[in-house]
Design goal:
Strand content: 35-45%
Number of helices: 9
Shape: globular
Helix content: under 10%
Radius of gyration: 31 Å
Structural class: mainly beta
């Protein structure tokens, strides 16, 4: 850390002068006594204490593609760094990565363990996954102490054209002459050739706060459209509001959810005086940001008027609703801004209240310096000491004090003294109270230079591609570091994709709130991006810590300790719910060879904790509670405390992007070819007649009908079944129970596996053995699906589906089986990273696989390491499609310098 401490501004400049004095000396620093005994000294010391005792982390994820299709794998590499230095962090050993669905429910959660120094992972998307807007969230347990606002977040579009030759899009008609406005949804259904699906019956229902309303039907007109009345809603935070449509198209089920936006057409316009307040009598820079009801920036222009309606100045946004203007307000005067609304009409917005006196902090970033101006608007505020602190990533880099003898003072702070990213300058008065603040973005000067050199100018089908990677620092020296690379078919993957590690570490990681297209600010092709970045600094929130807490000497409270391994929390209690203190609690995980065993004693409240262990996902854990005599007793409750899921939904467009059409078409073609190889065409690809034996009410699965249903009443009549296997044995036609294995006769096997897919309360299980861990008396119903009824669950359902609906409706912990004094379950274990499959065509052509190679991700490698010479070599084989390949490589050096590059390979 480089800390510059200055005795004073040493500024003796006339009030109207535009000259600036350099604040430095021959050594670059002055003795620390310069700020001894001042509020600034305390702020600096507490900041340093916060850094040493409460170090913070950032997570960034690099993905192989910007969007995906059902059935794809989402490949990603996670980078965990120290938030202050960007050096790879050694604090946390586990990163949690979550795929969150359109209804703000977690579809998959992975725990990435640091493996050979990095974090790699992948989500395997079911081919039955509904298309829609998904999110990825990543964080460490330690990061939860400092606010979820700084978790990694990314919006991802996932489409599904696999299970039906149908697509659907939604538009809205709004009649604003009525009160409230009348909303009509127009949903258009098109077949695989883009022609209207006319004369088709569509079932639909409104779902509000997770509760479905009455089911209705409508028939598509000649244009394939149905019209649905939609309740008017202005709130963009209204949870889980959507229309669910379902249609049987050529024997294939099609279900599509359309999440309803806010229909409020009003524009929210907010003003941000530079420094924080509107000060009377001096020229103020006032930034503004206009957003629509969905929270996205919207262009505006308007007029500023005083109380008498006199026009003072005009303003107009320049980038995503942001802009700025100059205003010299008069004391006691109120100002308003008037704009024209997109839906017609006008609206006025008040500007912040004018302060009769105060300090004005103005900052202008230049090429090599940060020009700082401080103005005191009244004589009463002059001849008093003020203190200026400049910090970045929580570290102080500049500290100075001065007595404002004149009305205007200026200084130049060398940019080279700050790291790249966001810097915050705060002005304190003589009492140590923050009176003005300004964010500045410092362009990175130390980013890595990454070059990728192919061994040929052009590549043919299935030809070997060899790449030589060279990484250098800003001075041209070779760099040792860790990187990830994605190579995709640019004809179907958006070639305008911009690498994101610079935005992820230098922007998103320190700014609160949603940032539209953050990578745009780091794209050299983006015009006026530096000016737009400065507008973002003027209008976006930034609060990694509060000055009040810092100046009071209060460090961040820690609720979540550093996680060096997994942790299981729980409690032991009696039948009446009272805690059983001092119970002996034993934990067993895994098998005898590679298992984990530990013992704990419950506290006075019956709580216990096991921590510091590691095991892979899908490992069974057994916990027992024993009394003083060594006998099992009491009930055991396992506690899971994950961050809640809540996002502002309307930051997504309502329909799958048109740019995905080519990608989804290629995905479906590859899917069809793969299924034909496996002999599975009869299930999904040919029209079939759906003959449903039983309606499946209250099911937690995707289906509407089941071939067989066993209810809780049926189970009660069976007497005392000891397991799910006892319930199923001999009671379902075509289903055989062989020991603890289940085989459903008469359907295809998939990859040689005969296990059916198991779904418990809507959650798919990777292991059919979970059936042996479910208490039969917790079951509300069991549904067996075969053939067409199972088709909605995709290729994983080739061996049939067993759906378990429990009486609790949410089977937690995963796969739990409880008896008195014992609980067995599958907790979250670490994700075992898979290796990206790279076909090898280095065999004679007559021995090669004849299946068309339609990969969209040609190559992915999340573990590219450069040596001391800064180089690395990569090789793979081209696919069959003659399209250019987009190459994106990102990463970080051992000393925390990020780098990114995008280039293309020619393919003929």
């Amino acid at each position: 850390m480089k800390l510059l401490i200055y005795n004073a501004f040493i500024l003796f400049i006339a009030a109207a002068s535009t000259a600036s004095a350099q604040v430095s000396d021959s050594s670059g620093t002055l003795p620390e006594k310069a700020i001894t005994g001042t509020p600034l000294e305390k702020a600096v010391k507490v900041l340093e204490q916060q850094l040493s005792q409460r170090p913070q982390e950032k997570v960034y994820l690099h993905f192989d593609k910007p969007y995906y299709a059902a059935g794809d794998d989402i490949w990603f590499r996670a980078y965990l760094v120290n938030a202050a230095t960007h050096v790879p962090s050694d604090l946390s050993r586990i990163i949690y990565v979550e795929l969150i669905g359109p209804a703000d429910t977690i579809v998959q959660r992975l725990a990435l363990k640091k493996d050979q120094g990095n974090f790699n992972g992948s989500f395997q998307l079911s081919d039955a996954l509904p298309g829609g807007h998904y999110r990825v969230r990543a964080y460490t347990s330690w990061m939860r102490n400092f606010g979820e606002e700084f978790f990694f977040r990314k919006n991802i579009m996932i489409g599904n054209s696999l299970l039906s030759n149908l697509q659907a899009r939604i538009e809205y008609e709004v009649d604003r002459d009525s009160s409230p406005p009348e909303i009509t949804a127009l949903i258009r259904f098109l077949d695989g050739n883009g022609k209207p699906a006319a004369g088709r019956e569509v079932s639909y229902e409104h779902v509000l706060i997770g509760k479905p309303k009455s089911l209705k039907t409508a028939t598509t007109n000649e244009q394939g459209i149905i019209r649905i009345s939609v309740p008017y809603n202005e709130s963009s935070l209204y949870p889980n509001k959507y229309i669910r449509t379902s249609i049987n198209f050529d024997g294939l089920p099609f279900v599509k959810d359309f999440f309803l936006p806010s229909f409020k057409v009003d524009t929210d316009l907010r003003f941000f005086p530079e420094g924080g307040e509107l000060i009377a009598g001096v020229p103020n820079i006032v930034a503004f940001k206009a957003i629509d009801a969905s929270g996205l920036g919207v262009g505006v222009k308007g007029v500023i008027r005083d109380e008498e309606g006199k026009k003072i100045t005009e303003f107009e946004s320049v980038h995503r609703g942001m802009g700025k203007f100059v205003l010299t307000p008069l004391p006691g005067q109120d100002y308003t801004a008037g704009i024209s609304l997109p839906g017609g009409g006008t609206r006025e917005y008040p500007l912040p209240e004018v302060q009769e006196e105060g300090y004005l902090l103005t900052i202008r970033p230049a090429d090599s310096v940060i020009r700082v101006s401080i103005a005191a608007s009244s004589a009463r505020l002059r001849n008093r000491p003020v203190f200026l602190l400049g910090e970045s990533r929580g570290q102080p880099y500049y500290a100075a004090q001065a007595v404002l003898e004149k009305s205007l003072y200026q200084a130049s702070v060398p940019i080279a003294d700050f790291p790249g990213g966001i810097a915050r300058f705060t002005l304190f008065d003589m009492a140590g109270i923050p009176v003005a603040e300004r964010l500045v973005f410092i362009p990175p000067r130390d980013q890595l230079d990454i070059s990728i050199r192919p061994d040929q100018a052009v590549y043919g089908a299935r030809e070997k591609v060899q790449l030589q990677v060279q990484v250098k620092d800003a001075s041209g020296k070779p760099v040792k570091g860790e990187f990830s690379i994605s190579i995709t078919d640019a004809s179907v993957v958006d070639s305008n994709t911009v690498p994101g590690i610079l935005a992820g570490l230098l922007l998103n990681g320190d700014l609160k709130g949603y940032i539209e297209d953050p990578a745009w600010y780091f794209n050299p092709a983006s015009g006026e991006r530096q000016a737009a970045l400065d507008l973002l600094m003027l209008t976006q929130g930034w609060r990694r810590f509060e000055w009040k807490n810092i100046l009071d000497g209060r460090l961040q409270e820690i609720a979540y300790p550093l996680e060096l391994g997994f942790e299981t929390l729980g409690r032991v209690y009696s039948d009446s719910g009272d805690p059983l203190p001092h119970a002996r609690v034993i934990m067993l995980a895994g098998d005898r060879k590679e298992g984990f065993a530990a013992e704990d004693t419950a506290d006075a409240a019956g709580r216990f904790r096991f921590s510091g262990y590691e095991f892979p996902d899908s490992t069974r854990v057994l916990i027992q509670a024993r009394n003083e005599k060594g006998r099992r007793f009491g009930e055991i409750e396992i506690q899971e405390d994950w961050p809640r899921v809540h996002f502002q939904r309307e930051r997504f467009p309502p329909n799958i992007r048109d740019s995905m059409d080519a990608y989804l078409a290629l995905s479906k073609e590859a899917f069809t070819i793969e299924r034909e190889k496996l002999g599975l065409t009869s299930i999904l690809l040919d029209p079939v007649e759906v003959v449903a034996q039983e309606k499946a009410p209250n099911s937690t699965g995707l289906h509407s009908y089941a071939d067989n249903i066993i209810t809780a009443e049926d189970i009660t009549r069976m007497g005392s079944p000891s397991s799910i296997y006892d319930i199923l044995r001999g009671r379902v036609p075509g289903l055989q129970v062989i020991g603890n294995r289940i085989v459903i006769r008469g359907i295809n096997t998939f990859y040689g596996n005969t296990d059916p897919l198991v779904v418990v309360d809507g959650v798919r299980s990777m292991d059919a053995g979970i059936l042996g861990m479910i208490n039969p008396y917790d079951v509300a119903s069991i549904e067996i699906l075969k053939g067409p009824n199972a088709a909605i669950y995709g290729m994983g359902a080739a061996n049939g589906v067993i759906v378990i609906n429990t009486k609790r409706g949410e089977y937690e912990p995963r796969g739990a089986y409880e008896r008195r004094g014992v609980i067995s379950f599958f907790p979250q274990g670490y994700h075992v990273a898979r290796e990206f499959y790279v076909p090898k065509y280095n065999v004679p052509k007559n021995l090669r696989d004849k299946t068309p190679d339609l990969r969209s991700t040609i190559y992915w490698n999340g573990d590219v390491r450069t040596g001391s010479d800064g180089s690395a070599s990569l090789s793979f084989y081209a696919a069959d499609r003659p399209a250019p390949y987009m190459v994106i490589m990102e990463g970080i050096s051992a000393d925390g310098k990020p780098g990114q590059v995008k280039t293309f390979l020619k393919r003929e």
